[in-house]
Design goal:
Number of helices: 11
Order of helices and strands: EEEHEEHEHHHHEHEHEEHHHEE
Strand content: 15-25%
Radius of gyration: 21 Å
Helix content: 25-40%
Largest sheet: 8 strands, mixed
Number of strands: 12
């Protein structure tokens, strides 16, 4: 029995306009997250991963513009929602853990005050109740309760990220978006944070959108994976299916660039070229200038997403007929 859809993004297009250029950040993103599901969104820097996440919360910058698409949360359209309609959703129903906790946490408030603000705004707690709950949340993420009155600057990078997670799960959201939550942390702390997120997701039955360029994190935390390139989802499926049977040349390239203890390769394989410029996107398949299997058709037409099997979809002319 298929799980109920929690978030559905359809044909989402976003552009950013500056004095110098127009950047087409998202170019028809289609993505679905079901209730209780963990989905990894992977791709190079500039692929559009963070813009996708911020679009869900309707938080793209002022020079950004939604030019097409739909974002349905529990069947409710979020696109074009007024700020007063989004406020009860942000931090309550959908929470986001940002990449750099030092910039996402306010330096002039204690961590207890910042977690408490979320609780008071969304759950109607008074100051005393919020402070006590903040202590419980800190202990949940492995921070001693007495540190509730400390300021962000008094914490290490890993501890600040734990504070961000505590704030993110404060209202038991239905969807938790984690944007590169372990990028600035050392390997030992990364492992602790990932183990913590895995445990919390299981305890709270929260749906997870994990944004990262680290395929190892995806394989550790997620059931499904969506591979993003130049503002489009180009491959999607279960982690097992996509990682063991990649169909898109870009996905093959990402996996080929990973070091492996089982491989006797003396050098890693690199994807040729650089990621497509959002201000000057190529015609046809956005990946074709870097693709070793490029055909004439790829230079002229944008391939459609085709179904390979129940657990695997790919946007590539080499698999145009699909197998289903």
């Amino acid at each position: 029995m298929e799980k109920e859809k929690l978030l559905e993004i359809k044909n989402l297009k976003v552009k950013f306009t500056t004095e110098r250029a127009v950047s087409y950040a998202l170019n028809g993103v289609n993505l679905t997250i079901h209730k209780g599901e963990s989905l990894g969104l992977v791709g190079e820097s500039g692929a559009g991963k963070t813009t996708t996440a911020l679009s869900v919360l309707q938080l793209i910058s002022k020079n950004g513009q939604y030019t097409d698409g739909s974002i349905l949360y529990n069947g409710k359209e979020l696109m074009g929602s007024a700020e007063k309609e989004m406020l009860p959703i942000r931090g309550h129903k959908i929470s986001m853990i940002f990449q750099n906790p030092l910039t996402s946490l306010n330096p002039v408030f204690t961590v207890g005050e910042q977690i408490g603000m979320v609780l008071r705004q969304h759950l109607g707690m008074n100051q005393k109740q919020a402070l006590e709950r903040a202590k419980e949340l800190l202990e949940t993420v492995g921070i001693a309760a007495y540190r509730v009155n400390d300021y962000p600057v008094q914490f290490s990078g890993g501890m600040r990220q734990r504070v961000g997670i505590a704030a993110g799960i404060a209202c038991n959201p239905e969807l938790l978006i984690a944007d590169e939550p372990t990028t600035a942390l050392d390997v030992t702390i990364q492992a602790q944070i990932l183990e913590l997120m895995k445990r919390l997701q299981k305890e709270y039955s929260t749906s997870l959108l994990m944004i990262t360029h680290n395929l190892g994190i995806i394989s550790e935390l997620c059931e499904k994976v969506a591979v993003m390139y130049a503002g489009r989802i180009i491959e999607y499926g279960t982690v097992q299916e996509v990682f063991h049977h990649p169909m898109h040349p870009y996905t093959e390239g990402l996996l080929g660039a990973l070091p492996s203890l089982d491989s006797d390769k003396s050098e890693l394989t690199a994807i040729p070229g650089t990621i497509a410029n959002a201000s000057n996107l190529p015609d046809g398949c956005r990946f074709h200038p870097r693709c070793v299997s490029c055909r004439e058709q790829c230079r002229k037409q944008q391939p459609a997403m085709v179904q390979i099997n129940d657990d695997h979809y790919v946007e590539c002319f080499a698999h145009e007929g699909g197998t289903v």
